[in-house]
Amino acid sequence: MTSPNPDPDPRTTPGLEPGGGVSPGDTPPDSGQTSGLSHREPRPSRKMSIAWLVTVIVVVALIAGFFLTYLIVYLTGD
């Protein structure tokens, strides 16, 4: 089973010139809609965003700990 062509029939469409063109300043006819309403998009998972947030916090804490340890060792002169 084939679906009907969504484009308007040029023989019955007003405003078209011979050959299918439109007059200057005229708007060509629009094609019909080929799809209806789609299903709702699923919401993104919060688990992944929480995992990224925890990962960033851990990496920042490790970098801060490294620099804090380096500063303590530098200031104590060991």
From TrEMBL:
Keywords: Membrane, Transmembrane, Transmembrane helix. InterPro entries: DUF6480. It comes from the Bacteria. Residues 1-45 are annotated as: Disordered. The chain crosses the membrane at residues 50-75. The keyword Membrane applies. This is Uncharacterized protein.
